[in-house]
Amino acid sequence: MDLCPWADLVYGCDSAWWEHRNGLLDFKGLKVCFSANGLQNYPGIRRVVINRREDRILIEPKGTIGNGGNSGFQALNLAVQFGAARVLLIGYDMTMSGGAHWYGNNTWRGAGNPNDGSLRRWVEHFDSAAPALKLMGVEVINCSPISAIKSFPRKSLEDAL
After folding, report:
1. pLDDT score, position 45
2. How far apart are CA 68 and CA 145, in angstroms?
3. Of 2, 32, 57, 94, which shows the fewest CB atoms inside 10 Å?
4. Is residue 102 part of a domain?
């Protein structure tokens, strides 16, 4: 993966994201995707189930995560299921101030982009999850310089590390 070659794991929900990146064939870490997105042509990608009716962090059953409307929420849920006690949110701006994504709009076939309404819903899901995460003993720090998510303590990435 060009942006984070040091990463141990990459999660992506959308099949168009994976297809645009040719299944990240050269990535050596753990690759995880949504089980129903039809990526059988890419070897080595593990699957998780997303409970589309639950916009909260799920602990059980293992391998089933909450929806939250976006892959960032789902990745946070996955980290909790993996036993993370501390999670740093990076790039979770949840605003349109710098464009749809920190890297620009998704332009490839089948790709989607957020709008103001979806961003508001996503922020609500993160904010709703914050008390439960705290009760679970999971420390979540928002290291995104700009972010609409206000429910987690904010720090610069340098200070959080």
Report:
1. 92
2. 22
3. 2
4. yes
Query: Is the Cβ–Cβ distance between 122 and 28 less than 8 Å?
Result: no
Q: Is residue 1 part of a domain?
A: no
**Whole domain around residue 62: which residue ranges?**
9-160
Count of domains for the chain: 1
For helices 116-135 and 71-81, angle between their N-to-C axes, nearest 10 degrees: 10
pTM for the complete prediction? 0.89
Q: What contacts 24, CB < 8 A, 6 or more positions away?
A: 1, 10, 18, 31
Q: Is 146 within the bounds of a domain?
A: yes
Give the pLDDT means over successive 10-residue stretches in the chain (161 positions): 78 87 90 86 90 96 96 96 96 77 65 82 97 98 94 96 92
Angle at 4 between CA 38 and CA 44, to 5 degrees: 30
Please report whether residue 3 resides in a domain.
no
Q: Which two tokens stand for residue 72?
A: 């960032």
Instruction: Give the DSSP H or E segment for 65.
Output: strand 64-66
- What's the rounded Cα separation, in Å, for the pair 12 and 45? 10
122, 103 Cβ separation under 8 angstroms: no
Q: Are 67 and 51 in contact, with CB atoms under 8 Å apart? A: yes
- The DSSP letter of residue 151 is S
